[in-house]
Amino acid sequence: KMMTYSINQIVRGKVAGVFVIVGTHPERPGIPAGYAVKAVNPANLSETAPGEMLFTADMLRPYA
Question: pTM for the full model?
Protein backbone atom coordinates (compact mmCIF):
# COMPACT_ATOMS: atom_id res chain seq x y z
CA LYS A 1 0.00 0.00 0.00
CA MET A 2 1.32 3.43 -0.97
CA MET A 3 1.83 5.88 1.90
CA THR A 4 0.06 9.21 1.82
CA TYR A 5 1.61 12.30 3.34
CA SER A 6 0.28 15.67 4.42
CA ILE A 7 1.43 19.27 4.00
CA ASN A 8 4.14 20.27 6.54
CA GLN A 9 4.93 16.62 7.34
CA ILE A 10 8.64 15.81 7.73
CA VAL A 11 9.66 12.77 5.66
CA ARG A 12 12.80 10.97 4.59
CA GLY A 13 13.87 10.20 1.05
CA LYS A 14 13.89 6.47 0.21
CA VAL A 15 17.64 6.75 -0.47
CA ALA A 16 18.78 9.84 1.43
CA GLY A 17 17.72 13.22 2.75
CA VAL A 18 15.13 14.77 5.03
CA PHE A 19 12.33 16.84 3.50
CA VAL A 20 9.15 18.73 4.36
CA ILE A 21 6.03 18.29 2.22
CA VAL A 22 5.02 21.73 0.90
CA GLY A 23 2.33 20.71 -1.59
CA THR A 24 0.68 17.98 -3.61
CA HIS A 25 0.52 17.68 -7.38
CA PRO A 26 -2.05 15.68 -9.35
CA GLU A 27 -1.01 13.45 -12.21
CA ARG A 28 -0.66 15.29 -15.53
CA PRO A 29 0.41 14.09 -18.97
CA GLY A 30 4.05 13.05 -18.66
CA ILE A 31 4.22 14.00 -14.96
CA PRO A 32 3.25 11.51 -12.24
CA ALA A 33 1.24 12.50 -9.17
CA GLY A 34 3.52 13.46 -6.31
CA TYR A 35 4.55 15.77 -3.53
CA ALA A 36 6.41 19.08 -3.69
CA VAL A 37 9.17 18.88 -1.07
CA LYS A 38 11.87 21.17 0.32
CA ALA A 39 15.12 19.81 1.73
CA VAL A 40 15.41 20.18 5.52
CA ASN A 41 18.48 20.38 7.76
CA PRO A 42 18.31 17.13 9.81
CA ALA A 43 20.02 18.89 12.75
CA ASN A 44 17.40 21.68 12.78
CA LEU A 45 14.08 20.71 11.16
CA SER A 46 13.00 24.37 10.94
CA GLU A 47 15.82 25.16 8.44
CA THR A 48 14.92 24.52 4.81
CA ALA A 49 16.99 24.84 1.65
CA PRO A 50 15.89 27.08 -1.23
CA GLY A 51 13.90 25.53 -4.06
CA GLU A 52 11.48 22.64 -4.31
CA MET A 53 11.50 19.18 -5.86
CA LEU A 54 8.69 16.87 -6.98
CA PHE A 55 8.89 13.38 -5.50
CA THR A 56 6.45 10.52 -6.08
CA ALA A 57 5.12 8.75 -2.98
CA ASP A 58 7.36 5.71 -3.60
CA MET A 59 10.44 7.96 -3.31
CA LEU A 60 9.54 8.89 0.30
CA ARG A 61 9.26 7.15 3.65
CA PRO A 62 8.06 8.28 7.10
CA TYR A 63 10.52 10.32 9.16
CA ALA A 64 10.15 8.38 12.43
Answer: 0.89
